[in-house]
Amino acid sequence: MTITFAGIDFGTSNSTVGLADAKRAWLVPLEDSHVTLPSAVFFDADGGPASFGRAAMAAYLGGDEGRLMRGLKSTLGSSLLGERTAVGRRSVSFRDVVLRFMLHLRDRLDAAQPGLKQAVFGRPVHFLDDDPAGDSAAEAALLAIARDCGFDEVAFQYEPVAAALHYEQGLVAEELVLVFDIGGGTSDISILRLSPERARAAHRMGDILATGGIRVGGTDFDRLLSLAEAMPHLGYLAPTKAGTGTMPRHYYLDLATWHRINTLYTARTAADLKALRAGADRPELIDRMIRVVDGRRGHALALEVERVKIDLTGAEAARLMLRDICDAPNPVLRRERFEAALEAPVARIAALVEQTLAEAGVGAERIATVFLTGGSSHLPILRDTVARLLPAAKMATGDMLGSVGTGLALDARRRFG
Fold it and tell me: In terms of CATH architecture, what is 5-172+398-416?
């Protein structure tokens, strides 16, 4: 009988489930033949069964009545996790939503390998910045959810360390590697000694020279791009009639933040926006905002901004399609403006690289390889920043969305085997 071990990567934007046996590690199909599952849940307004991943987003974009929820991982460690929210005629807590999504992952794992009671879960180096209590609360919440899913033994591994274990499978000699995992919610770094011989060791803590992380990721890049290029067409920073101020910002900040979008869909917000329209210098801009909120088109707008962000990875310009969402123009966005909007988080990421090198006690010239993983690692500005800081290192990439899940399964084999 072949013994297998499980690793689960619950991501802000995408999730994976890995399995490993004595010879190899692989990812479990989670949606048809796809081994990645967008971390999204759609609740039908009539109380039908929830849908997940691509099916959830297709239901929302197809006009089905209901509620889309995405960016669920961002609720861990926050007060939002225990709050309740309306889903049709029902009320559910955000913890219940996360649990439903995790139970769906568990179902897919059971379909591939029934009855596993042990698993290694990935976690960022820090769920929250400069908040040890919140960080501990986030891991405790994830542990409790994992146990509610039927896992008796649960261990955690830093996501960049898991990605390193995946990368190590292809090495033929020892390397000093900096793993840079830029996910949907966090940017995490680990500096490790890796080699075929070290891969066989029972304990690896001595090979991890330093880890670091900040709560900056792809959803933050979406938010900043939205605020810079989309929200002004809906009245963001628009002046009032008397020229004494600008429109309140918090509605736009919520609309640009994945896990906050649903908080706008209330009668109070609708009334507030109508009142603000009366004082706006350009009320037609507020009309667009009202269309988005009244029509519950916030996630459609966020998905369109995300699409343009991805397009700007490989192109110098892309068109943001707003007309069908809120009757605004369809402006052309240029990469240099997007990168200008990212100046502050990119500076924080650069500082994180330098800080982690200092904690490891190694100079930049000693890093042989930078292994880039995570969906946002494609962004040219981030690659250019890493190349500038580590000019002697070669850049390596693997499975951008799957290396963590595979590495977690390898870690489960090491821990539980």
Answer: 2-Layer Sandwich (3.30)
